[in-house]
Amino acid sequence: MVEISDPGDPRLADYRDLRDVELRKSLEAEHGLFLAEGEKVVRRSVEAGYAPRSFLMAPRWLDGLGDLLATTDAPCYVLSEALIEQVTGFHVHRGALASLHRRPLASVEEVLAGARSVLVLEDLVDHTNVGAIFRSGAALGFDAVLLAPRCADPLYRRSIKVGMGAVFTTPWTRLPDWYDALPDLARRGFTTVALTLSADSVPIEEAVDGVDRLALVLGSEGHGLSSRWEASSERRAIIPMRAGIDSLNVAAATAVACYVATRR
Amino acid sequence: MVEISDPGDPRLADYRDLRDVELRKSLEAEHGLFLAEGEKVVRRSVEAGYAPRSFLMAPRWLDGLGDLLATTDAPCYVLSEALIEQVTGFHVHRGALASLHRRPLASVEEVLAGARSVLVLEDLVDHTNVGAIFRSGAALGFDAVLLAPRCADPLYRRSIKVGMGAVFTTPWTRLPDWYDALPDLARRGFTTVALTLSADSVPIEEAVDGVDRLALVLGSEGHGLSSRWEASSERRAIIPMRAGIDSLNVAAATAVACYVATRR
Known about the structure:
Chain A is of the alpha/beta class. Chain A folds into two domains: about 1-100, CATH 3.30.1330.30; about 110-260, SPOUT methyltransferase, trefoil knot domain (Alpha/beta knot), CATH 3.40.1280. Chain A is built from twelve helices and twelve strands. Chain A has helices at about 20-30, 40-45, 60-70, 80-90, 110, 125-140, 155-160, 165-170, 180-185, 205-210, 225-230, 250-260; strands at about 1-5, 35, 50-55, 75-80, 95-100, 115-120, 145, 170-175, 190-195, 200-205, 215-220, 235-240. A seven-stranded parallel beta sheet of chain A has the order 8-7-6-11-9-12-10, sandwiched between helices. In chain A, helix 6 (about 125-140) links the parallel strand 6 and strand 7 (about 145). In chain A, helix 6 (about 125-140) runs parallel beside helix 12. Chain A is elongated. The mean pLDDT of chain A is about 95.
């Protein structure tokens, strides 16, 4: 427990300018760290076995996390909420943060071992959507998540928070290869079903009917799936919608698709 | 078309400090206005019949909305993107804004006329969730939305944006009375089904089975439904989830429930 009263203290470097997405991306990559925010998510990160580098807390959050802090040698920096706001650049509503070490990415083999239903995310750029999809996938019976090389980071603070820590308990990794990712999944015994508005798309219930190992493929918020992934998936599916409505949000569509797929 | 180069120009009063939620709430209430953001949403607001007070645009958005601007006498203030940021307090990615007149709220009778499936939101406080729920409801076959007195404003800029303007085309209103809202819906011939984790909750498919006029009732993000609404709804339902997972995000749960309910 280390009380700090100088917001410029170099020990707080992991926690600076949390709203500056570009700065955070390079800082977190260079140091191999990620941040967990909020009592519940901080707890889940440590309980999932991620090694903490340090904690940053306002005094009133110490009690709730006392048992967790007792399990680790990592320093806990204690600052007033006003100082936390100076360091991080915003008001941390649930004034508990942790900086944790990232782990080496798992191999695709490891992530797929034993999985029957996996989500495959192409170039989703919005951390909120990535987090929401991890959460829905975990709740609705999906076993693993694969990310295309340009998909947003699921260990980014915002992804973790929206996902309520589902990224800690769901096996996931990056796909090393974008171009052949879906044929590769097919070779591994997965039926690839892409959620996309194409001419031969069928309702999702029909697309997953009778499928054993399922890879549900999702494209970016704006442009949808790449033509390569659309063409190289074995089946294309839609969520049936009311006439005249253009689309569902990708996180909402994923929740519906996961619900339907889990009942196949 | 009015070019403005002074960010302090009083004609820009409708567009000030868009990130200051409390200030915006009182300003919008006092003046009976709301803001639409982004080319698509601005277009939908006017096409839905809301009367514009004014528009605020960066020069490059004029072309895309030229046809719409030609239909109205409301002034269009043209500012550089840097000046727009000074006025609004943030970088407007899609540099088109409109300020529009609110309309008197419809009566509950009007909103329910002809509706077979309605969403009833209790105290959702997050504008993003309210917007996402309007969008999913519209896409997945719901006809109307009723809001408890303390539910967040669906005409708040963020709600409209996330909902992609679904609030303009979906009949909605405020419930005048919180306490008897659900018994009142039952008297009007709706079966009230609350999405809530209670001891007698049944899977959503079972809860909506055979229901003709359906009122799907949703509680707040944090605390869920009030005990009054939980007890005064006729049926209680859950989205079946994997063991050990506590909950879905309310917007994801709503999307699943709407999908299932529309297939009843």
